[in-house]
Design a protein that fits this description.
Strands 1, 2, 3, 4 and 5 form a five-stranded antiparallel sheet that branches. The protein has 115 residues and is of the alpha+beta class. It has one domain (22-114): Beta-lactamase Inhibitory Protein, Chain:B, domain 1, CATH 3.30.1450. It has helices at residues 2-16, 39-43, 51-58, 111-114; strands at residues 31-34, 63-64, 71-79, 85-94, 100-105.
């Protein structure tokens, strides 16, 4: 009777959750979310470009604010299989005419692009 009870307790502990057990050889994948941007892409931008031109260079923004049509957000998150998380954010601002005014975030416009 003890053997049956102990085996039931042991099986219930095993089936209740295996987060404390580390299985060797379990395959984990990298997870990427958002827009992948780099400084080379941002270097193609210049102040005064239209929204269509910015969309051609950077791609469609992940977040286009419904209440503020002059702000586009390009977030990027990467979680490696080892658990290392990388975050990058770029926010593009347009003026009232829909022309590129400013870029804020991990990548920025250099002085030559601002003139």
């Amino acid at each position: 009777m003890r053997i049956i009870i102990l085996s039931l307790v042991f099986l219930s502990l095993l089936s209740s959750g295996c987060s404390w057990i580390k299985f060797p050889g379990v395959h984990k994948i990298d997870i990427q979310q958002g827009n992948i941007l780099d400084q080379e892409m941002v270097d193609k931008l210049q102040v005064g470009m239209t929204k269509a031109q910015v969309k051609f260079v950077l791609g469609t923004p992940l977040i286009a604010d419904t209440f503020n049509q002059d702000r586009w957000d390009y977030p990027f998150r990467h979680l490696s299989a080892a658990g290392i998380e990388t975050k990058e954010d770029v926010v593009v601002y347009f003026d009232d005419q829909g022309l590129l005014k400013e870029l804020v975030g991990n990548y920025t416009l250099n002085e030559a692009q601002k003139n």
